[in-house]
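step 4 of 6: structure.
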Amino acid sequence: MVRSKLMNSVVVIAVAVLIGSIAVEAQAIGPKIKYAPKKVAKKTVTENPQEPSVLHQVPAPRHATRVTPTPARLFYNYYAPTQGGGIPAGIYPAPRQVPLVVGHTYNTYQPLMPHEFMYRHNRAYHHYYNNGMGFTRTSVRYR
Amino acid sequence: MTTHSKFICSLFVIVMIGMFATSDTAQAKKRNRINQWEREHANATPWNGAYRHQAYSTPLAVIVPPTAATHRLLGWGVSKNVVSPLYHQFQLGAPRALKAGYGPYKSLPMYPSSSDQFGAYYIRGPW
């Protein structure tokens, strides 16, 4: 009997702590949201009686519009932030940047960029081709 | 073990799991708040200090892993060793140069008193 009382008290304390933590969480989220019942306008039968209901229907498209995902941006360089007044600096000073009329230097394989080897992480690179009909994925584990 | 005690034990386990789940979400929210605060601070302060590197005549950006959190400044004397957080991080997008220019930056003193005066400053690499 004593044992079961002890267990009961432990459970009651745990439940109280849980409720307290949830209450703290709710306070940290922000101001309390007051829920109001949705006001739905009641449709009456006499609304627009002379207009047939067929006019409200929109003809369905034959094919769903396909959105081709944009390919990943080809890497060119990363820069130090200048918002706070810092001097501009590129992460890769070599090869040197050239004017726009000359052309650009690209590193065409992002997984082998040196800054990816600085810490342990996983990354997946996606490439869409053939107008979004084809898709390849390259998963890299930096260990 | 009676049924009653089994029920109490299972209830206790459920409550403990719930507590750990809420603590995880609290940590995630705290982490997001810290990241937001770091970004705001990085947008308001320059990444470089007041000194220029001897070899480049400008402040030098030394890249460190993006997982790095702090860096240490070593200096002569009492309370001159400072551990400060790393806020700035390399990002995409070419910056616009200021018309007024940057600097002037101080040169390395004859007798340096802090590692900050060598003109090399840490920036975290991009994610």
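step 5 of 6: annotate
 - The mean pLDDT of chain B is 85.
 - The beta strands of chain B are 60-64, 70-73, 82-85, 120-124.
step 6 of 6: archive
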